Amino acid sequence: MFDGYDSCSEDTSSSSSSEESEEEVAPLPSNLPIIKNNGQVYTYPDGKSGMATCEMCGMVGVRDAFYSKTKRFCSVSCSRSYSSNSKKASILARLQVTGKPPTKKAKVLQKQPLVAKLAAYAQYQATLQNQAKTKAGNSVSVEGFSWGNYINSNSFIAAPVACFKHAPMGTCWGDISENVRIEVPNTDCSLPTKVFWIAGIIKLAGYNALLRYEGFENDSSLDFWCNICGSDIHPVGWCAASGKPLVPPRTVQHKYTNWKAFLVKRLTGAKTLPPDFSQKVSESMQYPFKPCMRVEVVDKRHLCRTRVAVVESVIGGRLRLVYEESEDRTDDFWCHMHSPLIHHIGWSRSIGHRFKRSDITKKQDGHFDTPPHLFAKVKEVDQSGEWFKEGMKLEAIDPLNLSTICVATIRKVLADGFLMIGIDGSEAADGSDWFCYHATSPSIFPVGFCEINMIELTPPRGYTKLPFKWFDYLRETGSIAAPVKLFNKDVPNHGFRVGMKLEAVDLMEPRLICVATVTRIIHRLLRIHFDGWEEEYDQWVDCESPDLYPVGWCQLTGYQLQPPASQSSRESQSASSKQKKKAKSQQYKGHKKKRKMPVGKKPVSLSSLPMTGGVRRSFSGDEELTPPPYRTLPAQTALEAFPPPSTSREFRPSLKTVTTSQLKEELLDGEDYSFLQGASDQESNGSATFYIKQEP
């Protein structure tokens, strides 16, 4: 709709009323501006000149934004519809725009003078404004969290979307950055229908962008945040192709007399989103896992074994799994579809992992096994040569206290490179707290890793010879350290920096996704801090963990985001934890800490339902917690074969550059845009290694 930006030339000839008008036009009020054009007098009730009304749909808008040289229609679709449909519904608009006398059919329909109709429109606009003011005055202030306000008020920086390969658009974000132009809804407008205008990105924070309308230059008074992947965000040229009107914001409407020339100057050479951006967003949010699929997942009560669970719902790639034996479907577990905690049916038997057999002898109606190719693949390893052996020592993240890295021992070597790990000094007698890690897991480290990287290593419980020395401990226990060369030393070019904001899963309460910060980076290992909480609740997480998400992910997928905890919430939770700790002995005798259950935090659900039940929790945080019912996303009517999840950068769109010739042509013709291919400034992932020294 760009060809409507020809400047409006005003005729200074005297005004005259229509000769065939049935009623005499009343004198014009002195407080309304008068525009003389083609011998017809126009007055505009909003006090602004240059307004027009579409002859087809009757929409009132800025004349410069209207379609065609005569400014008779608001869009291409209205122009085409007018030529083929009846004109009866647009007689008044035709009188206002063209100044031509009505036809005989029009005379029958025109029963009110022009000024009377304009006055009615003015009254209608005033009513809308009064209703808006009343609504704003009576609205109850709801305490909510806004990423935009949080980032602006503290000058925070968010982790780029490209850091999260598993998130929507994570592998095809391209070089979207500041100064990219997009078409967005114009909220600074009093028109009753949705209109659009062009805005530029001032600041990026994950999926969210701080935008400023074109024409405001250095004026930030109307800057606003929005999600770039939202349905109302389009590349420049979308309005022209879709027949949507582009209307300048009311605040700067009179700043320029020729908006077409202004846009040509501002947009020439600028970058915009790829034409198929919205399509790629939609495709990246299609998930192969569906409700009723059966999987094997870690037993949250006995970490050393797996159980069969059924996919209950899928939100943004996160699965709510219900253990198959749960009759009331409340015994659930949340994880991402690429989590290393879930596997295909038969996985445990194939590698020799412990498995809890289900009491259910046959599958329930509608349940079916998930195809094995949908699960995340692990790196193949060669176990024929030098390999891990039972009794070898290493360092590992405690799965029951993710803020610590502990002294650990390999308790069992499984097939396909999997290992059963136990935390020294904290193991249960029956080995029920052993945890399965793959040999390439970023959560296990060679002896000396913490010392080299200045991380506090948690010694075995009851070990009194402090400070802890690996050389002494290996000699005292008669053990050997696992060879350094067997560990995963690849470090991708992940892009995270200390201080970056993101949304992270509280892995001790895996239903909760919280506002978080990267506080430390050790090669590929990230220290995640939950804003508003003490450091004891921090978690060590791999840079490629599927439990980390860009800012704005919860808003995009409909997941509930937990805001930073207030001081009162922390104090209340701390006091409650201390009382319960005194009154109850813990079954797990290791380093497990009482995890947070913040006051005011709700379980993740698309419905605002209260949480009931107790608060005892361990690995999953909800052994005796009875969660509320969850809204189940509708299942597909037909389940076809799904392709395996891909982590490669198969699609990397670059932003499109608008050239002068293209822009001028599109401003005149209003046809589809064809942008030049731009260069992407993203580099492929690199690799690095870390050095570990060992004492003899």
Automatic annotation (TrEMBL):
Residues 677-688 have a biased composition (Polar residues). MBT repeats lie at residues 145-249, 257-353, 355-460, 468-564. Pfam families: MBT, zf-FCS_1. GO terms for molecular function: chromatin binding; histone binding; zinc ion binding. Residues 45-80 form the FCS-type domain. It comes from the Eukaryota. It is found in: Nucleus. Residues 1-32, 564-658, 677-696 are annotated as: Disordered. Its main location: nucleus. The keyword Repeat applies. GO terms for cellular component: nucleus. The keyword Electron transport does not apply. Residues 566-577 have a biased composition (Low complexity). Keywords: Chromatin regulator, Metal-binding, Nucleus, Repeat, Transcription, Transcription regulation, Zinc, Zinc-finger. One of its GO terms (biological process) is negative regulation of DNA-templated transcription. Residues 578-599 have a biased composition (Basic residues). This is MBT domain-containing protein 1 isoform X2. The lineage of its organism: Eukaryota, Metazoa, Chordata, Craniata, Vertebrata. The gene is Mbtd1.
